[in-house]
């Protein structure tokens, strides 16, 4: 990207971020949780995913036309048992406040006697992880395209005072147009200029300072971007072993080997982001993200055009129609658990059960 264009992008994006921060703060500071839907408002179509938290179901709002959503149904019993009440309420508050094209957001939320429900846009292209596994690796042009969007998303989150902390291909969805959304804000935390010490994230993507309990901030997200760029381009992460402790040892040592097919510019960028010494790590130096976005590897990338979704992706997921779920695994359908009285009413008193 030519320097003049890049400078213009920085100026315009900075203005955008300042407006976005004001909008986020207004939403985030609202004290009362106000549910804006009810389970009876939705037609349940198909299970998209399942886990210890509950499951994600493809749904259609009965009065919102043909638009489809992904509804995360979280069993309150499991939330309380795993001591994740505050964590879950925080995630809902953040999802409700963020508004950025490359970050997932909340459309509806509510509860019934048994579950909490978070309803988000349905991104039918599936996870980046699945496509990376099928394609073995991405060429550098596609890796740049995806990396640029993640960088823009993280600049947005960081400007809000948030650190994301859970970047990995499984947490990136690709839409029918080939653009992405960073999803699962469960580990996101608003720390502003403070440090945090929580050990969380995926082993292969943990920054050295997390492993060493040194206290950290947005530095860990830039490290994770370096890991993602490497994994997208290589097909495997830079630090890998069957034993997590071995992974941690490799990360702390900072030693990795790039595949022979990596271009010279890609090798240089990855080496400068995956720096154990934070005083040398790109993304958090004096010039901030400019060191990364202005790097030679991104020379052909127009961040402004990508932000406006005007760049034609070299890959689009195969999607027949808006309701196509072929990019997701198959799950057996199970009935919702029911209860005649509200479970854990005190723990989730902030969210009222909608009345009709």
Automatic annotation (TrEMBL):
GO terms for biological process: adenylate cyclase-activating G protein-coupled receptor signaling pathway; imaginal disc-derived wing morphogenesis. InterPro entries: AGC-kinase_C, Kinase-like_dom_sf, Prot_kinase_dom, Protein_kinase_ATP_BS, Ser/Thr_kinase_AS. Keywords: ATP-binding, Kinase, Nucleotide-binding, Serine/threonine-protein kinase, Transferase. GO terms for molecular function: ATP binding; cAMP-dependent protein kinase activity. ATP binds at residue 72. GO terms for cellular component: cAMP-dependent protein kinase complex; cytosol; nucleus. Its EC number is 2.7.11.11. Residues 42-298 form the Protein kinase domain. Residues 299-356 form the AGC-kinase C-terminal domain. It comes from the Eukaryota. It catalyses: L-threonyl-[protein] + ATP = O-phospho-L-threonyl-[protein] + ADP + H(+); L-seryl-[protein] + ATP = O-phospho-L-seryl-[protein] + ADP + H(+). PANTHER family: CAMP-DEPENDENT PROTEIN KINASE CATALYTIC SUBUNIT 1 (PTHR24353:SF153), CYCLIC NUCLEOTIDE-DEPENDENT PROTEIN KINASE (PTHR24353). Belongs to the protein kinase superfamily. This is cAMP-dependent protein kinase. It comes from Tribolium castaneum (Red flour beetle).
């Amino acid at each position: 990207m030519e320097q003049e264009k890049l400078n213009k992008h920085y100026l315009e994006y900075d203005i955008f971020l300042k407006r976005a921060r004001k909008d986020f703060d207004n939403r985030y500071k609202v004290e009362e949780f106000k549910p804006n839907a009810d389970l009876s408002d939705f037609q349940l179509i198909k299970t998209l995913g399942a886990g210890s938290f509950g499951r994600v179901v493809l749904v259609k709002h009965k009065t919102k036309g043909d638009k489809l959503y992904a509804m995360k149904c979280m069993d309150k019993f499991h939330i309380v048992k795993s001591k994740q009440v505050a964590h879950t309420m925080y995630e809902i508050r953040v999802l409700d406040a963020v508004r950025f094209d490359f970050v997932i957001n909340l459309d509806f939320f509510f509860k019934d006697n048994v579950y909490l429900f978070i309803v988000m846009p349905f991104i039918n292209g599936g996870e980046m992880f699945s496509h990376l596994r099928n394609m073995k690796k991405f060429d550098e042009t596609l890796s740049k395209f995806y990396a640029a969007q993640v960088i823009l998303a993280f600049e947005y989150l960081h400007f809000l005072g948030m650190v994301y902390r859970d970047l990995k291909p499984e947490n990136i969805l690709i839409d029918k147009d080939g653009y992405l959304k960073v999803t699962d804000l469960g580990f996101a935390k608003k720390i502003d200029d403070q440090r945090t010490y929580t050990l969380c994230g995926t082993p292969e993507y943990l920054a050295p300072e997390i492993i060493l309990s040194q206290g950290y901030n947005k530095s860990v997200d830039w490290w994770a971007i370096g890991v993602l760029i490497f994994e997208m381009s290589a097909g495997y992460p830079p630090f890998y072993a069957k034993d997590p402790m071995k992974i941690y040892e490799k990360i702390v040592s900072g030693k990795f080997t790039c595949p022979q097919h990596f271009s010279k510019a890609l090798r240089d960028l990855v080496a400068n982001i995956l720096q154990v010494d934070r005083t040398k790590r790109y993304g958090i130096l004096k010039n901030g993200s400019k060191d990364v976005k202005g790097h030679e590897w991104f020379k052909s990338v127009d961040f402004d055009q990508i932000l406006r979704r005007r760049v034609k992706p070299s890959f689009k997921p195969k999607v027949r129609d808006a309701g196509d779920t072929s990019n997701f695994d198959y799950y057996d359908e199970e009935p919702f658990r029911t209860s005649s009285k509200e479970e854990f009413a005190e723990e989730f008193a902030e969210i009222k059960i909608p009345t009709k």
